[in-house]
Structure formats: C-alpha cells, structure tokens
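TASK: fixed-backbone design
INPUT:
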C-alpha cells in the first residue's frame, strides 16, 4: 500500500501565506453597493460613445482585387482593378488591365470610359515597347508589341492597330540592321588596324534612330577604337625593342605587350606577339648554348615569363641544356647521365621529340666512344701505316653522334701528320736541287705537293723564293736593257724589250709599270709635237687649240715642263693679238681675249683688258648737273600749305 507523502515545513508555510493573501485581496474587492453601480454606469456611457463614433466614421471597405471572383464582378469593379494594375506601368500589368475590362459588354454605361482606358493602355504598351527598343532590347520590344491585344477591337480599328504595330516592328528591325551593319564595318576596320576608318564609321552610329546605338554602343566602340590605337602603338614600340635582338630589349617588349587587356581589339595580336617574343628568348638561349655558354643559356630561359605560354617549354629547355652540357665531354659516364637527364621530359613537352632524337644519338655514341679511343691508341706510334689505320677507324664515327666533330678534328690532325711524313722528302729533294743552283728543277719538284696537302703553304713559299732567284738571273738583264733604251729616248724599243718578261716572273709587275710610264711619255711627246704643229697657224683659234692639246700632257712623263712653257708663250701671243685688234675693233679684241684659258699665266691680264674694253663700249651715263643761279633766292610763300589739308591717299578727304 502506497503511503501519502508528508508535506515539508516549508511547503506548509507557503500555503498558509497564500491563503492569507487571498483573504486580504477579497477584503479589498468588497466595495459598497452604490460605488459598484456608479462604476457600471460610467463604463456603459463610455462604451456607447465609442460605438456611436465608430458607426459615424466607418468608411466603405476597399475591394481586394486579387480575391475577387471575376465572373460575377461588376463593370465598375473591373475598371477599378484594371486601373490599379495599369498604374504599375509594366507590360504584364497593362495586359492584365486590358483583359479585365475587355469582356465588359458594349451596352454597359461604363463602356465609353473603358474604351478610352483601353486606347490609353494600348498606347502605354507601345510606349513600353519603344522604350525597350531605345534601351537596346529589340527582342523584348518586339515581344511586347506583338502581345498588344487587338481581337477585342472592331475590325477597322483592329486592322489599323495591327498595321501600326507591324510597321513599328519593321522600322525597329531596319534600324537595328543598319546599326549592326555599321558596327560590323567598324569591327572589320579594327581587325585590319584601320583606326581612322573605324573612327569615321563610328560617327555613323550617331545618325542611327536608336538611343542605345547612338549613345551606349557609340561610346563603347569609340573607346575600343581609341584603346586599340593606343595598344597598337604599344605593340609597335614593343616590336622596336624586340628588334634590338638582345635579352633586355625582348623583356621590355614583353612587359609592354602584357599591358594590353583582354577587352582590347589588339589582344589577339598581343598574345601572338608575346609568344613570338618568348620564342625569341628561347632562340637567344639556344644560341648561347650553341656557343657553349650554359650559364647564360639557362639564365635566359628562366626569364621567359608565363604570359608567353612558353614557360613549360623554357623549363624543359633548361633540363635538356644540362643534358647537352654533359656530352660536351663525351665519355661513357657523361653520355649515360645526359640520357637520364633528357628522359625527364614528359611526352606532351614541345621538346620531347628533340629529346628522344638526342637520346638515340647519345646511345649510339656510347658504342663509338670505344671506337675513337682505339683509333687514338693506334695513331700514337706516328707511323704512316698506323696513322692511315687510325684515320680509317675514326671515319667510322657517325655524323649523328656528338663524337663526330671530335673525330673529324682527330682525323684532320692525323692527316696533317701523315701528309707531312709523305711530302717532307719531296720538299727536301727540292731544297737540295735549289742549293745546286737548279732552280727550275727545284720549283718543279716542290709543285708536286698539292694544294690540299699539309706542306703546300711551305712549299709555295720556297717556290716563290726560287722563282725570284730565277727572275733575277734571267729577267733582270732584260728589264735593265729596256731601261737603258728608254733613257736613250728609244721608248718604243724599250717597251718591246720589257714585254719579253713573262707574267709568271716576279719582275712582271715592275716591267708593266715601266711600260705604262714609257707609253705615257711617248704619248706626251706626240701631243707636244701636235701642239707645235697646230700653233704654226698663228691665229687666235690655232693658238687656243695648241694650248688645249698641250694641256693634255701628263705630269709624270717628263714633257710637262716644256708644255707649260709653250702654253705660257701661246697665251701671251693671244693677248698681243687682242691688243692689236683693239686699235680698230674692240668687239673683235674682246672675242680674241676670251680665248685665253683660265689655267694660263696670261688669263688675269686678258680679263682686265676685256673689262676695260667693255667699259669703253658701254660708258656710264653722265649726270645732269644744273648750274646754280647767282640771283638771290626769294623766300617761298608756304602759307597755302597751312590752309589746304594734307590728304591721306588711303581714304577720301572729309
């Protein structure tokens, strides 16, 4: 059996306190009866007043359009809700307003008002479509225009409205097509870098009957044209820097090209230029590597920026450059390490195929290292047989291996040693013949050494020396005899004698120089004789012709002194003839004096005489001198000058 729990002392105290409080509250609520009725009367009066005021001020309830059951709604209710919707000025709300009132019968009293609102709302729809068109939203404008309801109108107004809508849409399309055509032409000019034409074409957008094309698109395309022009100038400057061909110039070009943003019409050109500049850096790095400057090559490759799209290729270039560096000393170990280095390139690397070719070449070179080592060991004895064998072995080294150049160098060195061993006895034999005085035989012996042989240059030096000895012994007497004949004045015989020296003789050039000098001397003598013969005529014309002929004599032939003396005499003779003629004919004297050449001694005197004679023929005018009168001068009366105003000929007198 369950026992009832015993209340705790504290809970009993709380119950007693609560009971006492309830009794106190009850005592407070017990009021006298008259006071209760007074309170109730006051409350009733106030409630009556409030109720009456509410009834007096109560307004009719505003209809809730979304909750109206439209099949039973009145025309006024439809018009009211339609106005509310149309006031929102959106296509959907205007269409809703039109739909609400379109079903009102024509015999209702509100129908004229509804028709006015329908016309106004239809125009509002067309205005919204026009606004969309002007804002650049052609599709939305056409959609709004085609949604304008016309089926509720009578046939004639409906046809008129439909025709108006179609004409409006057709006009929009024509304007849009015109604008797009202009814009495409601008884009074509931009693509072909014809900035002036692009600017000129852009101004045609200002004439387009559309605010979007005439403002927004015009500003957009003109900014693009200006940006394209500036960016193209940057690219031109970049190209000039890159054309310098040095690393710093190319890097400066890259920095300029990187400034051209994605929105620029020149962006594709800039990207192509960046790739070209990156390729130019890699070419410079490769050139440094070919010059066996590994440090410079790696430094250049590491400076290729990511913007060139060649950063990965530059990284692989560094890897392959280190491998190529190892094979500059082609030992088996270096070749194996180079192969391992080149194998690090991924199959999608642009340098992968190059690396594979080098790997194959280096793998073949490993086998040929031993071949070249054997050839070197064979050539150490220096004998003709061993050198020949070593050359044959080294020629087996393939030109597709890095050992090829080294093998060719060894072959050239061994071939020189071999040819020297073979040709040295021939040259010694020639020297022995020359010591015996048989220079012709010595020359013939030395010429057996061909032009592609190691001792050819040395043999040719001996040949020239022996030929000079032959010339001194055989050709020098001929040249001396010719000189003697020339000294005696027998120039023709001297020339014929000197011409006996063959072109193979070391004295040939000396002989030809002497022949040219003697030929000139003979010619000068002939010219001087001709001048003397001409001067025999004694006339001014003959003397002038003689002077011209004598002046053609060279200054190195020995006859120039006599020619100058004759020219001096003949010039003064012309002056004397002019003086004689001047006694009776000044014009004729001047004509004769003018024949004195400017390079002659008598020329200044001839010019002085010409000036004097010209002054006699054309004396200056005599000034008209009026003798002064001895009569006293009377003072002039100038009072009239003060009376008559001075006239300014630039304007009439007032």
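OUTPUT:
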């Amino acid at each position: 059996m369950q026992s009832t729990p015993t209340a705790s002392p504290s809970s009993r105290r709380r119950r007693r306190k609560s009971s006492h409080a309830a009794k106190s509250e009850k005592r407070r609520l017990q009021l006298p009866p008259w006071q209760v009725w007074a309170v109730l009367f006051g409350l009733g009066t106030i409630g009556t007043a409030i109720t009456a005021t509410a009834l007096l001020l109560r307004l009719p309830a505003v209809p809730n359009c979304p909750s109206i059951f439209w099949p039973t709604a009145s025309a006024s209710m439809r018009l009211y809700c339609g106005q509310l919707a149309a006031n929102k000025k959106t296509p959907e709300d205007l269409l809703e307003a039109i739909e609400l009132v379109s079903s009102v019968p024509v015999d209702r009293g509100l129908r004229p008002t509804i028709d006015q609102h329908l016309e106004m709302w239809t125009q509002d729809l067309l205005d919204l479509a026009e606004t969309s068109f002007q804002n650049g939203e052609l599709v939305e404008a056409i959609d709004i225009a085609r949604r304008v309801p016309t089926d509720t109108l009578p046939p004639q107004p409906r046809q008129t409205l439909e025709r108006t809508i179609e004409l409006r849409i057709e006009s929009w399309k024509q304007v849009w097509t015109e604008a797009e055509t202009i814009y495409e032409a601008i884009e074509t000019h931009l693509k072909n870098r014809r900035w002036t034409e692009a600017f000129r074409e852009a101004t045609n957008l200002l004439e387009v009957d559309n605010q979007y094309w005439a403002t927004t698109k015009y500003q957009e395309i003109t900014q693009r044209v200006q940006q394209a022009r500036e960016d193209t100038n940057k690219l031109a400057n970049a190209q000039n820097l890159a054309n310098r061909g040095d690393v710093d110039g190319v890097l400066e070009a890259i920095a300029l090209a990187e400034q051209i943003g994605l929105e620029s019409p020149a962006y594709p050109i800039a990207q192509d230029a960046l790739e070209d500049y990156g390729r130019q850096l890699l070419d410079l790095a490769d050139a440094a590597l070919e010059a066996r400057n590994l440090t410079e090559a790696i430094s250049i490759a590491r400076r290729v920026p990511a913007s060139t799209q060649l950063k990965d290729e530059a990284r692989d270039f560094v890897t392959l450059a280190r491998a190529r560096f190892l094979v500059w000393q082609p030992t088996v170990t270096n070749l194996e390490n180079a192969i391992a280095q080149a194998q690090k390139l991924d199959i999608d690397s642009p340098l992968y195929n190059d690396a594979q070719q080098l790997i194959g070449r280096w793998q073949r070179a490993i086998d040929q290292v031993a071949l070249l080592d054997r050839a070197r060991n064979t050539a150490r004895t220096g004998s003709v047989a061993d050198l020949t064998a070593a050359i044959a072995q080294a020629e087996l080294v393939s030109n597709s291996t890095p050992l090829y150049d080294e093998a060719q160098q060894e072959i050239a060195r061994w071939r020189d040693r071999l040819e020297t061993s073979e040709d040295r006895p021939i040259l010694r034999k020639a020297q022995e013949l020359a010591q015996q005085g048989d220079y012709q035989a010595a020359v013939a012996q030395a010429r057996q050494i061909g032009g592609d042989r190691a001792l050819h240059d040395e043999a040719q030096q001996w040949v020239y020396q022996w030929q000079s000895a032959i010339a001194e012994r055989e050709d020098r007497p001929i040249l001396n005899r010719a000189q003697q004949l020339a000294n005696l004045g027998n120039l023709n015989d001297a020339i014929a004698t000197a011409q006996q020296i063959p072109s193979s003789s070391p004295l040939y050039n000396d002989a030809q120089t002497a022949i040219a000098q003697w030929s000139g001397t003979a010619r000068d003598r002939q010219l001087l004789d001709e001048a003397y013969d001409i001067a025999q005529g004694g006339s001014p014309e003959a003397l002038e012709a003689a002077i011209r002929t004598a002046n053609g004599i060279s200054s190195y032939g020995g006859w120039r002194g006599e020619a100058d003396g004759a020219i001096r005499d003949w010039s003064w003779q012309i002056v004397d003839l002019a003086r004689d003629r001047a006694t009776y004919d000044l014009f004729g004297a001047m004509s004769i004096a003018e024949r004195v050449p400017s390079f002659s001694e008598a020329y200044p005197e001839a010019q002085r005489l010409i000036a004097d004679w010209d002054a006699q023929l054309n004396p200056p005018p005599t000034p008209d001198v009026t003798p002064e009168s001895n009569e006293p001068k009377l003072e002039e009366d100038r009072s009239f000058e003060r009376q008559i105003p001075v006239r300014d000929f630039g304007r009439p007198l007032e």
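COMMENT: The CA atoms of residues 487 and 494 lie 9 Å apart.
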